[in-house]
Write a structure and sequence with these properties.
Layout lengths: L19 H7 L1 H4 L2 E3 L5 E3 L4 H16 L14 H15 L7 E5 L6 H10 L2 E6 L2 H13 L6 E5 L18 E6 L7 H4 L20 H4 L4 H16 L3 E8 L5 H10 L4 E9 L2 E9 L12 H9 L2 E5 L1 H13 L7 H15 L3 E5 L5 E8 L7 H14 L7 H7 L9 H18 L8 E4 L5 E4 L24 H10 L16 E10 L2 E11 L2 H21 L1
Parallel strand pairs: 3-4, 3-6, 4-5, 6-7
Antiparallel strand pairs: 1-2, 7-9, 8-9, 10-16, 11-12, 12-15, 13-14, 15-16
Helix pairs in contact: 4-5, 9-10, 12-13, 12-18, 17-18
Subcellular location: Cytoplasm; Nucleus
Keywords: Cytoplasm, Methyltransferase, Nucleus, RNA-binding, S-adenosyl-L-methionine, Transferase
Pfam families: Methyltransf_10 (PF05971)
Length: 549
């Protein structure tokens, strides 16, 4: 599970990620979804809905004593991210153990927010739902956990938000409302078409959920605006109104809408879970509420400066040292051996690099990446092979045809015929698919057109496989290494001559006790995700070399 230090300070998973090995040994239903990574660590494939569901149900049972059921065709929540939201609501209402009343708009089949809030803090919840399947499962989950006294699940009409839900409770003042709104406006947006930056890697987890859970007219922006308009009528019926957002770009226009409507108290935050980011917006019409401060810019800078890193354990270093010797490394130092292998891989990928001064028992390389050669390598090579198969062969010449038919050439023209035959053979070889370099034209990150060389040297890389717990679909570094070895190095003479580049970073190879640690520090460039992809590629390449032994 990909977690990080930017989670809410009270989140139980912030400094203690779930122990997959322990959970697998205790829960057989979860055990079948736990696999071993190249680094020898237990991992879960978050692109499998069954695995995501098994993990959620296991964590709720182990850490909160909750037993729930979720259908695969409905939204499967991740527990750490939901905990972030619960803890932020605690901050909003200034006191997590006092009896509080809350509303969960669109509670979903899991009914996770009311179940967590009631179990952790004894909160009373009014949970609304429009979907029949979600309503049935939510009701069952509340009942089987004996929380019917604290959680009331109500079925409301389609497009209903707060107004209709509170018609029958005209005098009750609620402390807060929570909402995980549908993020997308249509099917294309839900699939990432025209809404996802082309430079971003694909999502690391599967997208489950019913239509009413993931899509709404106008997407999350219009959905939350409807809640804002309801709040303008209800005003002090709720002390705090809040919503979670899936897109950072939704935050500014919603804050502007609240400003136009004269809402006096507004705040926001961000929820971090590995590569997954969510944002939350809250507003109030009360003057005496305590407004939590937005995220600290200093913390963001510290997060941005944190390097990417991975470790090569001592048992595999001997094999890596032997492979380094095979490529010409004469040093017996594991740091030098690993550095030599990294330099070879970077050379094959056409990533510019040069050694820079560093401390003893370390090696540092300054990297300049001018093109993305480490991702989608298999797709590129398949396309190249397809183009090779479709290339037409050159027709045989008349002389060749006559010889094939058995008609001997005149004796006086024998030398000429021999030369002609040789030329024909060369001409045929020049048009034979197996020897013709095929160039593929694709736009680079600046929108310009550029040609890709004959061999794609990259490999499909999943961003989350750089962490130990959300690998998604891992790449096959063995195939990538083989492809890289086929492609000649075409590096510019000097990194200083490069005017346009994707990113620059500093790669450090260090010895820590008996292990070797590789760190990549961002310097500048277009997108840090690209450095993350390269880091994962290098890691998988080295670990695959060890695994082959």
């Amino acid at each position: 599970m990909s977690l990080n230090k930017s989670m809410h300070p009270r989140n139980r998973y912030k400094d203690k990620p779930p122990d997959f090995s322990y959970l697998a040994s205790k829960y057989p239903d979860f055990q079948q979804h736990v696999h071993t990574s190249l680094a020898g660590k237990p991992v879960v494939n978050f692109r499998e809905p069954e695995a995501v569901r098994a993990l959620t149900c296991t964590l709720l049972k182990e850490d909160f004593g909750l037993t729930i059921e979720i259908p695969l065709e409905r939204l499967i929540p991740t527990v750490p991210l939901r905990l972030n939201y619960i803890h932020w609501v605690e901050d909003l209402i200034d006191g997590q153990k006092q009896p509080r009343r809350g509303i969960d708009i669109g509670t979903g089949a899991s009914c996770i927010y009311p179940l967590l809030g009631a179990t952790m803090n004894g909160w009373y919840f009014l949970a609304t739902e429009v979907d029949d399947i979600c309503f049935d499962y939510a009701t069952k989950n509340v009942e089987q956990n004996n929380l019917s006294d604290l959680v009331k699940v109500v079925k409301v009409p389609q497009k209903t938000l707060l107004m209709d839900a509170l018609k029958e409770e005209t005098e009750i003042v609620y402390d807060f409302c929570m909402c995980n709104p549908p993020f997308f406006a249509n099917q294309l947006e839900a699939k990432g078409v025209n809404s996802r930056n082309s430079r971003r890697p694909p999502p690391s987890s599967v997208n489950t959920g019913g239509v009413t859970e993931i899509m709404a007219e106008g997407g999350e922006l219009e959905f939350v605006k409807r809640i804002i308009h309801d709040s303008l009528q209800l005003k002090k019926r709720l002390r705090w109104y809040s919503c979670m957002l899936g897109k950072k770009c939704s935050l500014a226009p919603l804050k502007e809408e609240l400003r136009k409507q004269g809402v006096p108290k507004v705040t926001h935050t961000e929820f971090c879970q590995g590569r997954t980011m969510r944002w939350a917006l809250a507003w109030s019409f009360y003057d005496d509420v305590t407004v939590p401060s937005p995220p600290n810019k200093k913390r963001k800078l510290e997060k941005a400066r944190k390097p990417l890193s991975f470790t090569l354990a001592e048992p595999g270093l001997k094999e890596l040292q032997a492979r380094a010797s095979a490529v010409g490394c004469t040093s017996s130092s594991p740091v030098d051996g690993v550095t030599a292998l990294l330099e070879k891989t970077l050379t094959d990928l056409r990533v510019l690099h040069k050694r820079v001064p560093c401390r003893k028992q370390e090696q540092s390389l300054f990297l300049t990446a001018v093109e993305n050669t480490w991702i989608h390598g298999r797709q590129k090579r398949r396309e190249q092979r397809r183009q090779l198969r479709e290339l037409p062969r050159a027709p045989h010449c008349a002389g060749t045809s006559s010889q094939t038919a058995g008609t001997p050439p005149p004796s006086q023209s024998q030398p000429t015929s021999t030369n002609s035959s040789s030329q024909d053979s060369n001409a045929e070889n020049e048009t034979t698919p197996s020897n013709e370099p095929v160039k593929e034209v694709t736009p680079d990150t600046t929108g310009e057109q550029k040609e890709l060389p004959e061999s794609g040297t990259g490999e499909d890389v999943d961003m989350e496989s750089s962490t130990c717990a959300e690998p998604g679909q891992e790449a096959d570094p063995q195939e990538a290494v083989a492809a890289a070895s086929e492609a000649p190095s075409k590096r510019p003479l000097s990194p200083g001559t490069v005017e346009h580049f994707l990113f620059k970073c500093l790669l450090n190879v260090m010895l820590e006790e008996s292990d070797v640690v590789i760190e990549m520090h961002w310097v500048e460039g277009q997108n840090k995700d690209l450095m993350n992809q390269l880091c994962t590629y290098l890691k998988n390449t080295l670990l695959k070399s060890v695994a082959k032994s």
